[in-house]
Amino acid sequence: ERHEILPEYKANRPDWNEKEESEIPFSEEENIVKCLRYLGIEPVYSVGMEADDVIATVAKRYSSERDVIISSFDSDFFQLIDDHVSVLRYRGKASVLWDKAYFREKYGFSPEHYALWKSVVGDKSDNIPGIPGIGEKRGSVLMREYAGTGALKGECLTERLRKSLCDNMETVERNLKLIRLSE
Predict the structure, then answer these.
(1) pLDDT tens digits for the chain (183 residues)?
(2) Are 109 and 143 within 8 A, CB to CB?
(3) Centroid of chain to Cα 62
(4) Can you list the alpha helix ranges (DSSP code H) found in the chain?
(5) 156 in Cβ contact with 121 (< 8 Å)
(6) How far is CA 180 from the centre of its chain?
């Protein structure tokens, strides 16, 4: 579905068909499934749905019953952070557990605005262009000051920022469709 919205979506990713078998992470699937089952975790399969969306679905489904920790370096999962969902970026002793407080400390706004922030600043890893003239720092200021007020389109912005946002609001809306994880 995302490729229908933006054909260039993830066009910068490797083509697994051109890789040696030793370079393909999927070659270890059988061993991973054995380990998961040994731990009492049943693997989840899905056809035609991105793994991020499957993980989001599982995380939200079980977060009402228990705390959920998503172990990943994919920052897209930051949009799922809430009182019961956190993201572990495992680096041995330097590992970091991203919860609501840590996210706010690092970004200065709430995780619920992360997808909107990424829609404004873009996502190079997924080949999604952001709004010209708005980088990560300026985007963070916008989220802190306006995202919760609904004034992102609005009256309080400088003329240049207002023009850039207004001229590119369709891009922001398109990017939201690409970046928001489906649950």
Answers:
(1) 888 888 888 888 777 777 787 777 777 889 999 999 999 988 988 888 889 999 999 999 999 999 999 999 999 999 999 999 999 999 999 999 999 999 999 999 999 999 999 999 999 989 999 998 889 998 898 888 776 655 555 445 677 777 888 888 999 999 999 999 987
(2) yes
(3) 19
(4) 2-5, 29-38, 51-62, 100-107, 114-121, 136-146, 159-167, 169-179
(5) no
(6) 7
